[in-house]
């Protein structure tokens, strides 16, 4: 068989779908606001994919090759989609069992509004370092912290920004993290050299983030603290609250630390949550099943309803009524829909050679050392915008810029650090990226709400460029040898 020629595409051909996508998405968000994630953004991504396909047809790219690229992209998100479904199921049973209410109950007694935001960063950083997963951190303690923040009357965007900042800080420095292993593999460095070198930019970024959140915390209206007793009484009156409920989240975190596959850990957490619901909250389970008495049938129905669909648990407090609701697996379908549409756009852009063309164009303007760092960082962000996947934002620039860094006598850890500082952490700032879609879906907070407060995430690429501009901690390849 004759080998198919790789598509050749002009820079304008690669830029046209991206420009149209960004313009349409911007207009769409101004019309729909946070509701844009309800479906209109998904359709705009398909419009962008259609424009990319037209460009591809004009450059002799076959329809089948585009479908193959889409299929490959969708296959790469299989794990993420399944994790999202299980996170929805876990959130449902953890609410039904009283685990999330218990976290909020004890958290309200410990976390004062003035220290709550920095505490969110520290808690999420510790959990993320231990588990190696920002996603798992958000799906467990992140959800609870959002609930506590609501109860304390702190803006949810601010809380989500603190959660995400801490979670991604821990994710970047954890040897268990997939992106932390992927970046040095692409750059040609080793894991622990990469982590050690990354601390030069990561630690200053998180310190600045902590200082900003400390200041924000002191300026928060603490009126929510005055109502704490009312909230505690209402939670206690609706749920059976005790420390035994923490056995489930501790067990799930233990499984992840022991490198249990995330899907298995989340399934175990979901099933244990359902079991604890039957033990500690039998009346609530019966009510969710639409019955007055718990029986084997209503027990099954109540737990299954929490896993698959919307549930709401009524208390004597209106704020808690809004808080104690879950969409289950059904609630994650909108996020999954967004990921699928994003992968369609990214797949076609890859098939027509658009992603490679954009990366090559950035590489061509990198004459000085700073320009090389800036081009690498920009490439990571552009691929996060176009391919909608943080892994591609590490893999593609890692491959493209590897030789360029070596030619300028730059050690590979310079490249691996830049890939993480600009690729891993910025993915969560883009609504149609898999990470942005996941975090907003799990935390129930739109990207637009937490964007400005995810300080660590947008500060990290700025920090790495400042270091590059002033030549701070730029390790030479000749010095390593």
Give a short summary of the structure.
With 481 residues, the chain is mainly α. The chain has helices spanning 11-32, 40-58, 63-76, 78-96, 99-110, 113-131, 134-151, 156-173, 178-187, 191-218, 223-226, 228-238, 247-257, 262-280, 282-288, 296-308, 318-323, 333-351, 354-364, 369-386, 390-407, 412-424, 434-443, 447-450, 455-470, 477-480, and strands at 311-312, 325-326.
If you had to describe this structure to a student in words, what would you say it looks like?
It is a single chain. 75% of the residues lie in helices and 1% in strands. It is mainly α and 481 residues long. Strands 1-2 form a two-stranded antiparallel sheet. The relative contact order is 0.16.
Q: What are the main properties of this structure?
A:
single chain; 481 residues; mainly alpha; two-stranded antiparallel sheet; 26 helices; globular
Largest sheet, in brief, is: 2 strands, antiparallel
Mean pLDDT across residues = 85
Distance between the termini: 46 Å
Helix and strand composition category: mainly alpha
* Unreliable spans: none
In which range does the helix fraction lie?
Answer: over 70%
Tally the beta strands: 2
Order of helices and strands: HHHHHHHHHHHHHHHHEHEHHHHHHHHH
Question: What is the count of DSSP helices, taking H or I runs of 4+ residues?
Answer: 26
Strand percent estimate: under 5%
- CA-atom Rg in angstroms: 23 Å
Q: Topology, please?
A:
Elements: H1 11-32, H2 40-58, H3 63-76, H4 78-96, H5 99-110, H6 113-131, H7 134-151, H8 156-173, H9 178-187, H10 191-218, H11 223-226, H12 228-238, H13 247-257, H14 262-280, H15 282-288, H16 296-308, E1 311-312, H17 318-323, E2 325-326, H18 333-351, H19 354-364, H20 369-386, H21 390-407, H22 412-424, H23 434-443, H24 447-450, H25 455-470, H26 477-480
Antiparallel strand pairs: 1-2
